[in-house]
Write a structure and sequence with these properties.
Elements lengths: L18 H14 L16 E3 L6 E11 L8 E6 L7 E5 L5 E6 L7 E5 L22 E2 L11 E4 L14 E2 L10 E7 L5 H7 L2 E7 L1 H4 L10 E9 L1 E3 L5 E9 L10 E4 L2 E2 L2 E4 L3 E8 L6 E6 L15 E3 L4 E7 L8 E6 L18 H5 L6 E7 L22 H5 L2 E12 L2 E12 L9 E5 L2 E9 L15 E8 L5 E5 L4 E12 L12 E5 L21 E4 L3 E8 L5 E7 L2 H4 L4 E6 L10
Parallel strand pairs: 1-4, 2-5, 4-11, 6-14, 12-18, 17-23, 24-28, 26-31
Antiparallel strand pairs: 2-3, 5-9, 6-7, 8-10, 10-11, 12-15, 13-14, 15-16, 18-21, 19-20, 19-22, 22-23, 24-25, 25-27, 26-27, 28-33, 29-32, 29-34, 30-31, 30-33, 34-35
Bound molecules: copper (II) ion.
Length: about 600
């Protein structure tokens, strides 16, 4: 059985609150709060399958407006979706076999999502209270009404030529070898500034790459034992009587930039139920939410028996992260029910879980009032148990020490720039080692007796490109988080590997964060008040394309770009951050062209 039951130990032995206590509290909360929609009444929908080899690798996907029912008791919602569905079709491709997708934009207005910043309601003492679910007043932001259907598709995690990577393309990868390892990828809209709206409206779907090497492991492939799970959160408008209308609402609460919605939706249904046989299932899980991080806990029994253990307090998935999970239901009696809950706070800062005492009541308020995600119900008698492979990846080599020693190093600071009377700006400041001749503010990184001084060379998307990685060579990127929240940073093109999470403490002088400048003193080593363990979870050690960068830490990744030269992007995958303004370009270069770079 995968992710842990309530008997799992707390992450810190001295922590007075064990995980089981916490989960019980979450369950109690779940029972106390009557959800506005009945949980576990809709069956989990499975997206239609588009198998590339059955179409000679030539696929056409129409991007259309449609109607979708997110819950039995909700009116139909207007959506924009691939093939007019939420989620879009599940595309299955074969390693080494090219796939051409014609993304045909047939979108028609009006834009199906209301965008609003809700006024924060307060209680009688003026203390802010949560205003979930629904709109709870507030003027809808008018700009979204004018959206007419611009879209551009990015295959997330795809080894894709630059011209088809989502800058301005209509067609994906004609005639290119698709030499990409077996993996769960996803395709979604990537339009500058409005990705948060277009994905929220429904423009996302899953893409599975298969190969024979992986088939040798004997894992489930296709229905019924391989189940794609696209997890998202959604909010709906209320009518004047306070009833849910089904209209999608992208609501940003005051104080935070992100849109966190109260209803967890899996494959387009709020809190669905999946009937499973007493068998081994393979769950292909994607967090496709705009901003929400999930810590998934399965309430049931059993102990983890996987090659890669998941964290004791639950499996963390930030926006765009995926997990490939094996669940063995074979020892469960018919009628058994297991429930997946989400215990992560929003906004998410890497904390293990909020301690439920009076002092931290506010922390508990950051949890979902309805933490349900999905329920499994065991039906049938026929047991199908598969052996679980001890080794999942048989063709992956760690970067050699000498390759890392000569790797080009890059540093990026994640900063939040607060602006008077305006929403904050989150940016990624690309840093270059400063010389004595350089004027201006400095970022000093102190590692033991060694100090490195940097200056900011780029701060906004439109600034000049400063990263020109050479194909085939490893680079080490340092992602330095100087904000209070966790940011899932995604690199386009090739996957990377996490090398380290270094705890840091830092000081930023008053006015240290300018529109482009940055002054900061960063010291490697943990702050005594820092409660994060900054550990690398076992399931993070493989190849990844999105990595969580927690507060007070530097994440070091090793990346080697291959195959394709051209202009790509890296960005925070909290879509509201990506749209403002945590995104930067980089240009991969063929080695023989490097001598000609000035
Ligand atoms: Cu972010």
């Amino acid at each position: 059985m995968f992710f842990p039951a309530e008997a799992s130990p707390s992450k810190r032995a001295d922590d007075p609150l064990a995980l089981d206590t916490f989960v019980c509290e979450v369950v109690a909360m779940m029972r106390m709060v009557t959800p506005p929609l009945a949980p576990f009444v809709d069956r989990l929908p499975l997206p239609s399958r588009l198998i590339a080899t059955e179409h000679d690798g030539q696929l056409t996907v129409r991007i259309r407006a449609g109607e979708h029912r997110f819950h039995r008791d909700l009116p139909a919602s207007s959506i924009w979706g691939f093939e007019g569905t939420v989620p879009g079709p599940l595309i299955e491709a074969e390693r080494g076999q090219p796939v051409t997708v014609e993304w045909r934009n047939e979108l028609e207005g009006p834009f199906p999502v209301s965008d609003t910043v809700a006024p924060q309601p307060t209680d009688a003492d003026g203390v802010p209270v949560q205003c979930l679910p629904g709109l709870s007043g507030g003027e809808p932001e008018r700009h979204t009404a004018g959206l007419t259907g611009h879209t551009v598709v990015h295959l997330h995690g795809g080894l894709t030529p630059a011209s088809y990577d989502g800058w301005a393309e209509n067609i994906f990868a004609p005639g290119q070898p698709m030499d990409q390892r077996a993996a769960l990828l996803w395709y979604h809209d990537h339009v500058m500034g409005i990705t948060k709206f277009d994905v929220y409206a429904g423009l996302a779907g899953l893409w599975i790459v298969r190969e024979d090497r992986e088939r040798d492991l004997g894992l489930p492939e296709g229905p019924p034992f391989e189940v794609p799970l696209l997890i998202q959160d959604r909010n709906f408008d209320l009518d004047e009587q306070g009833r849910l209308t089904g209209r999608l609402v992208h609501k940003t609460d005051p104080e935070v930039m992100e849109a966190f919605a109260p209803f967890t939706v899996v494959n387009g249904k709020v809190w669905p139920v999946l009937d499973v046989q007493p068998a081994t299932y393979r769950l292909r899980v994607l967090n496709g939410s705009n901003a929400r991080t999930y810590r998934l806990v399965l309430l049931g029994d059993g102990a983890p028996e996987l090659p890669v253990p998941v964290p004791a307090d639950g499996l963390l998935l930030a926006s765009a992260e995926r997990a490939d999970l094996l669940v063995d239901f074979s020892d469960l009696a018919p009628g058994s029910e297991l429930t997946v809950l989400n215990t992560a706070a929003a906004p998410f800062d890497g904390s293990s879980f909020p301690v439920a005492d009076a002092e931290n009541a506010a922390d508990l308020e950051s949890l979902l009032p309805y933490p349900q995600v999905l329920r499994f119900r065991v039906v049938g008698e026929a047991k199908v148990r598969r052996p679980i492979p001890r080794e999942l990846v048989t063709d992956y080599e760690l970067p050699a020490a000498e390759a890392l020693a000569r790797a080009r190093r890059r540093a990026i600071a994640l900063v939040e720039h607060e602006r008077a009377d305006e929403p904050s700006m989150l940016t990624m400041r690309e840093l270059a080692v400063a010389t004595d001749a350089d004027g201006g503010p400095r970022v000093s990184v102190i590692d033991g007796g060694e100090t490195t001084r940097y200056r900011v060379v780029a701060a906004h998307f439109e600034d000049m490109t400063t990263f020109f990685p050479m194909l085939g060579e490893y680079e080490v990127w340092q992602l330095i988080n100087l904000t209070g929240d966790t940011h899932p940073i995604h690199l386009h093109l090739d996957p990377f590997q996490i090398l380290a999470r270094h705890p840091i403490r830092y000081e930023i002088p008053e006015d240290g964060i300018g529109d482009r400048d940055l002054a900061a003193t960063i010291t490697l080593g943990r702050d005594p008040d820092d409660e994060l363990d900054h550990a690398i979870d076992e399931n993070e050690r493989g190849l990844k394309d999105t990595i969580r960068v927690n507060p007070n830490e530097i994440v070091e990744i090793a990346v080697r770009f291959t195959t394709f030269s051209g202009r790509y992007m890296y960005h925070c995958h909290i879509l509201e951050h990506e749209d403002r303004d945590m995104m930067r370009p980089f240009v991969t270069m063929a080695p023989e062209l490097m001598p000609f770079m000035a």
